[in-house]
Amino acid sequence: MFNKQIPLSLHSNYRIGGPASLFFIATRIEDIVAAVSEAKKLKEPLFILGGGTNLLIPDAGFKGVMLKPAITSLERIEGSRIRVGAGVLVSTLNYFTVRQGLTGLEWSGGLPGTVGGAVYGNAGAFGGEIKDSVVEVLSLDIAGAEPKLIRRTNPECQFSYRNSIFKSRTLEGTDQAAPGYAPPKEIILEVIFQLAPGLSTDINAGVHEKIDYRIARQPLDYPNIGSTFKNIPVTNVPEAVLKQYEHKIKQDPFPVLPTAVLISEAGLKGTKSGGAMISDKHPNFIVNLGGAKSEDVRALAQTIKDTLHQRYGVDLEREVIFL
Questions:
Q1: For position 1, what pLDDT does the model report?
Q2: 3-69: CATH architecture
Q3: HEC states along 60-99?
């Protein structure tokens, strides 16, 4: 049932990454269950691939099963609630809400990736977070001997800043700052959102306002995987640094000092390693200028982390995943 030696660069927004030993795109829940069972039977490592928009894949690829859930159901179920497959692109969801006249997700305009990935990492921007609209998440628990379905309410998802129970369970017991493989515990299948009635024209304008903002301020003309590091909660910033940059503090959704500000102030914009570069348009992005290797990106990320620790006394936490 698996395809062999599929180049993962074709499934990465970065256009970086070697082949997967085994690769499978599953469009139905039963196919996901079958793929997980087969991977266990083969005793192969399993990795769950979403939209490939926040993931750096090694040049050597992945020795195991790369499973891409592609459940793309999308429907209005009752009132202002919608049921969304985890494989639906956030952009597709945005335009569905415009057509349906449902407001609440305008902040996600221009957000790359899938709904499943957004829930996994509690994606957020412009003061909004995916958790704000989630009612229920259906997932497949694959940690035990047999896969089992789990339905969780919003509180049971344990959402926090760029985190959820789905992510924390996977990373539990690992060094989250280090690259490497962490066996998945759950696979998000579908999500129910609670939105509110609104005017389609206003919703469309709100979505496009955020898209235009991203185009103007982010290096979307180069392959990238978004912000490399999380913004820094003000509680984690030394007092002297906080005082110096207090005019730069923003809500995300709580008070943070944007990491891009300190990267820029440290003079790192435009720094290159091989085919990768710290963007001079948005310095928290590391872009692929063409032919970049995963090691080029890792080297620049480490340069940023070390420089900001030495100069400002802050410890950065990665937002993107290094496999």
A1: 76
A2: 2-Layer Sandwich (3.30)
A3: CCEEEEEEEECCCCEEEEECCEEEEECCCEHHHHHHHHHH
Mark the ranges of the chain whose per-residue pLDDT is less than 50. none
CA distance 15 to 192: 31
Fold of 74-214: 3.30.465
Catalytic residue, from 80, 139, 227, 279: name it: 227
Give the domain ranges of the chain.
3-69, 74-214, 219-322
Would residue 162 show up in a list of annotated catalytic residues for this protein?
yes
Each residue of 163-178: pLDDT tens digit?
A: 999 999 987 765 555 5
pLDDT value, residue 177: 53
pTM score, whole prediction: 0.90
Of residues 152, 162, 279, 318, which has the active-site annotation? 162
Q: Provide the 10 A C-beta neighbour count for residue 263.
A: 25
Q: Which CATH number is 219-322 given?
A: 3.90.78.10
φ, ψ (nearest 5 deg) of residue 40: -65, -40
Tell me, yes or no, if 319 is annotated catalytic: yes
Q: Active-site residue among 106, 129, 190, 319?
A: 319
pLDDT at site 174: 57
